[in-house]
From TrEMBL:
Lineage of the organism: Bacteria, Bacillati, Actinomycetota, Actinomycetes, Streptosporangiales
CDD domains: CGS_like
Gene3D superfamilies: Aspartate Aminotransferase, domain 1, Type I PLP-dependent aspartate aminotransferase-like (Major domain)
Protein name from the UniProt record: Trans-sulfuration enzyme family protein
InterPro entries linked to this entry: Cys/Met-Metab_PyrdxlP-dep_enz, PyrdxlP-dep_Trfase, PyrdxlP-dep_Trfase_major, PyrdxlP-dep_Trfase_small
Length: 387
């Protein structure tokens, strides 16, 4: 062969007798077949041979299996972002005329997405509190397809009554979909409480190092997975091999990181609750929080995000953001470093003061996504910013 041909046809290394110690990155867009019938078969089902990157990929599949296994599911479906997973599931299951019930306090992107479903896709929605199974029962009608919940909400850390809500859903024949991003399968496994589908933004704790954007859906029922998988390959919100590899690498330290996120958060939340500049601390791990008792039953830790209200209102919130040194003013959460955010001027800026207060967010509310630094260094930073 001529060099022009040889540079493009690179032989694969033979690995039959060697097993890698970590999951290799299969950085390939597709796979080569000997037999068109085998290739055709692989294109029609998710459990056949690997065929094309948008369908799945061995590195991506390793991540899907790992997270699905942790959640106790039958199958996982990795996507290019958390919103990609949410959209894949909602668009894959709902059609015009359908109705869904969602909890009132939702992640901002999800709330915007549901507004879009209502405005442009002829879907209707009823909002209920995350812990009122009777309100869910009253909201369900013949065209209701699913209930949408979040294990721990942002930024007030309300805990959803998963057993109560999922029991009503299953009794009435609708699906329960739960965003488990804030809890991770280390703190709560919604499928064990009756959920049908679990969603993750792997951008957060599962990858854990603020270096990727990704998402994942886990299904209890293989048939439901197959249905959504067929839609997923049409939608094309698929995950990348390298991103999946970084997520797998992060996942290996999830248990160690979650322990530290939770203990650091308890350290900061307890001290802030006693500080004179702070009027309230919102973390389900504090006995004063409305979700404390429920959280003790459902969670094996209360998570690494909390918020608190500053007596000085909006001006104090903005000043605090400018004064932290170790913590960063930054979006997102779940990484090894601590991030602060002022919801009233950033993530929730489109809400009016009334809408803010309905979701429990004040003008002086500060959200902290606590990292894994030494707790005393974090407390020293918060104290100097407060003063
Ligand atoms: C971040 C987040 C999402 C969206 O995930 P992206 O990866 O940013 O698309 C959805 N739900 C929750 C609870 C989140 O924190």
């Amino acid at each position: 062969m001529n060099p022009e041909t040889r540079v493009v046809h690179i032989p694969l290394p033979a690995v039959e007798d060697s097993r890698p110690m970590s999951v290799p990155i299969y950085q390939t867009s597709g796979f080569i077949f000997d037999d068109p019938a085998v290739m055709g078969d692989a294109m029609g089902r998710p459990d056949g041979a690997f065929v094309y990157g948008r369908y799945t990929n061995p590195t991506v599949r390793a991540l899907e299996s790992a997270v699905s296994g942790l959640e106790g599911g039958a199958h996982g479906l990795a996507t290019g972002s958390g919103m990609g997973a949410i959209n894949t599931v909602l668009l894959g299951l709902l059609k015009p005329g359908d109705h869904l019930v969602a909890q009132r306090s939702l992640y901002g992107g999800t709330a915007a997405m549901i507004n879009d479903l209502v405005d442009r896709f002829g879907i209707t929605v009823t909002y209920v509190p995350e812990n009122e199974p009777d309100a869910l029962r009253a909201a369900v009608r013949t065209e209701t397809r699913l209930v949408y919940l979040e294990t721990i909400s942002n930024p007030m850390t309300l805990v959803a009554d998963l057993p109560g809500m999922c029991a009503v859903a299953s009794e009435l024949g609708i699906l329960s979909v739960v965003d488990n991003t804030f809890a991770t399968p280390l703190l709560c496994r919604p499928l064990e409480h009756g959920a049908d589908i679990v969603l993750h933004s792997t951008t957060k704790y599962l990858s854990g190092h603020t270096d990727i954007v990704g998402g994942l859906a886990v299904f209890a029922d293989p048939a439901l997975y197959q249905k959504v998988w067929h839609f997923a390959i049409e939608l094309g919100a698929s995950a990348e091999p390298f991103t999946s590899w970084l997520t797998l690498r992060g996942l290996q330290t999830l248990a160690l990181r979650m322990e530290r996120h939770c203990s650091n958060t308890e350290y900061l939340a307890t001290r802030l609750a006693a500080h004179p500049a702070v009027t309230a601390v919102h973390w389900a791990g504090l006995p004063s929080h409305p979700s404390y008792e429920l959280g003790r039953k459902l969670l094996s830790g209360f998570g690494g995000v909390f918020s608190f209200d500053l007596a000085g209102g909006r001006a104090a919130g903005e000043r605090f953001m400018g004064a932290v040194r170790l913590a960063h003013l930054a979006p997102s959460l779940g990484g090894v470093t601590t991030h602060v955010l002022h919801p009233a001027t950033t993530s929730h800026r489109s809400l009016s003061v009334e809408e803010l207060s309905r979701s429990g967010i004040g003008e002086g509310t500060v959200r902290i996504a606590v990292g894994i630094e030494h707790p005393e260094d974090l407390w020293a930073d918060v104290l100097q910013a407060l003063s």
